[in-house]
Specification:
Blueprint lengths: L2 H8 L3 H23 L2 H18 L9 H19 L20 H16 L3 H12 L4 H8 L3 H19 L17
Helix pairs in contact: 1-2, 2-3, 2-4, 2-6, 3-4, 4-7, 5-8, 6-8, 7-8
Length: about 190
């Protein structure tokens, strides 16, 4: 990323800002889609994030921090989007780029479905740290800085998120209070 383009955008240069939008749209959309799990909401959130970035870019002190700062703006927009829609539930539709290709297509589809259902049970905080860590390969330090949270909080959110995702992906276990089905032999 060219820090000079960010510096020009900070001074109000619309052409420089347009270059930032072109260069960073796909990156921000991928993150929004990862968090919101709905391509239409993700596009809305990405567009709103760029509007917020345009309005707030003068507050960005260090042009070298644009990428992390833009993620922070986008995550705030994603949170607002979810709060604005009280009946929101993530869609299970995946973009063609996210559909896994494997020798065992049935197994990969079943695994993707199971993963998606597990992801739907996560809170926004948990979904966000998983997306930043696993989709963008961010370190916990970078996640903490991006989300403006303590490092320990980022670490515990990721741990809890992975635990919750694993639990949500497990098949339901018959409880001990339910009697086992007996086969009737005739």
């Amino acid at each position: 990323m060219d820090q000079h383009v960010v510096a020009r955008a900070r001074r109000g240069d619309a052409d420089a800002f347009e270059a930032l939008v072109v260069d960073h749209h796909h990156r921000l959309f991928r993150v929004a889609h990862g968090i919101l799990r709905d391509p239409h909401l993700a596009e809305d959130a990405t567009q709103q994030a760029f509007l917020d970035i345009w309005r707030e870019i003068r507050r960005l002190r260090d042009p070298a921090r644009f990428e992390a700062w833009s993620y922070r703006v986008l995550v705030r927009v994603c949170y607002r989007e979810v709060k604005r829609r009280p009946d929101w539930a993530p869609a299970s539709e995946l973009s063609p780029a996210e559909v896994p290709l494997a020798a065992d297509q049935y197994g990969s589809v079943a695994h993707r479905d199971q993963l998606e259902r597990g992801f739907q049970h996560l809170s926004m905080d948990h979904r966000t740290v998983i997306v930043l860590h696993h989709l963008l390969d961010m370190t916990l330090e970078a996640i903490a800085e991006t989300l403006d949270i303590p490092l320990g909080t980022a670490h515990s959110r990721l741990g809890r998120a992975m635990k919750a995702l694993r639990a949500a992906m497990q098949p339901p276990v018959a409880s001990a209070s339910q009697p086992a089905r007996q086969e009737v032999v005739r």
